[in-house]
């Protein structure tokens, strides 16, 4: 259970710019009024939450909706016969723009090897 939250926290840090997360921690800490009061959101985070769009005009996701969106990337096994020869190959679906941004932010390679 603890490992799940650790992975979620690390992924959230990397994906903060496309999630409903604060990604300007220095500015948030500077706006904090006291040690016990919560930090106030930055203007960027407020705008992102109000418009529900990133600065690049992509939809902002919660962590779960982004995972659901990324789960639509599939590896398909395709088999065909051409000129009486059979061919089998694997094809990964093309990521959408927001999926590609998440993949790039996470530093994931879409190339699979066996």
What does this molecule look like?
The chain has helices at 2-14, 25-31, 43-51, 63-70, 97-106, and strands spanning 75-82, 85-92. It has 114 residues and is α+β, with helices and mostly antiparallel strands. The mean pLDDT is 83. It starts with a helix and ends in an 8-residue tail after the last helix. It has one domain (2-106). It is built from 5 helices and 2 strands, in the order ααααββα. Strands 1-2 form a two-stranded antiparallel ribbon.
Quick overview of this protein structure:
With about 110 residues, the protein is α+β, with helices and mostly antiparallel strands.
Q: From the alpha carbons, calculate the radius of gyration and give it in angstroms.
A: 20 Å
- Strand share of the residues? 5-15%
What is the averaged pLDDT score? 83
Number of helices: 5
Overall structural domain count? 1
Helix content: 40-55%
Number of β-strand runs: 2
What overall form do the CA principal axes indicate?
A: elongated
First-residue to last-residue Cα separation: 30 Å
Structural class: alpha+beta
Described by its quaternary structure, the protein is single chain
Biggest sheet features: 2 strands, antiparallel
- Which stretches of 5+ consecutive residues score pLDDT under 50? none
Cross-sheet strand order for the largest sheet? 1-2
**Elements, N to C (H/E):** HHHHEEH
């Amino acid at each position: 259970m603890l490992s799940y939250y650790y992975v979620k926290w690390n992924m959230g840090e990397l994906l903060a710019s496309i999630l409903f997360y604060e990604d300007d921690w220095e500015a948030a800490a500077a706006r904090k009024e006291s040690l016990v009061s919560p930090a106030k959101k930055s203007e960027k985070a407020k705008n992102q939450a109000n418009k529900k769009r990133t600065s690049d005009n992509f939809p902002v996701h919660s962590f779960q909706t982004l995972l659901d969106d990324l789960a639509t990337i599939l590896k398909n096994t395709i088999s065909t016969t051409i000129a009486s020869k059979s061919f089998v190959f694997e094809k990964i679906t093309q990521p959408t723009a927001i999926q590609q941004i998440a993949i790039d932010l996470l530093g994931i390679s879409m190339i699979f090897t066996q």
